[in-house]
C-alpha cells in the first residue's frame, strides 16, 4: 500500500489515480488468512453494496489512504472488466486505452512498473518529505554534557 501512496503523492499533479475496491480477497466466511488476523483486517464477504461501502470506508479511515477510491458494484463489473481480483494495477491513457496492464497479485503485483511508466511519461518526480529533525538539546542538558 505504501508504494501506491508514494507514487500517488509523486504523480497526482500529472495523472489521475483511482483505487477500486472489489470483492474481499480473504473473507472470514471463505478463505481467512492468518495475516488478516495479524493485521486486524477481518471481514465477511459483503452481501450487498452497503457492506462493501462500510469495509471500504473502514480501510480509508484506518489506514488514512489518500488515493481516490471507488467501489465495484455487486455485479463485479470492474473486476470482470479488468480481472482485478485480488489486486492489479492498470494505467489508462488519455484516449481511454490500457497503456499498462500489471500482473495479477499478489505475486505479480509490481507498483515499481507503474512508477517506471510514469517516469518515462512525465520524468522523475518525488514529493517533498519533511526531514525528521533531531531533538534540540535544552540548556540544562548542555550543562550536563
Summed up, what is this model?
The protein has 145 residues and is mainly alpha-helical. The chain has six helices and four strands. A hairpin with a 5-residue loop joins strand 3 and strand 4.
Written account of the structure:
The protein is mainly alpha-helical and 145 residues long. The protein has one domain (2-144): 3-Layer(aba) Sandwich (Glutaredoxin). It contains six helices and four strands. The strands form two sheets. A two-stranded parallel sheet has the order 1-2. Strands 3-4 form a two-stranded antiparallel ribbon. β3 (90-92) and β4 form a beta hairpin. α1 packs parallel to α5. The protein is globular. It starts with a helix and ends with a helix. Residues 131-145 have low confidence and may be disordered.
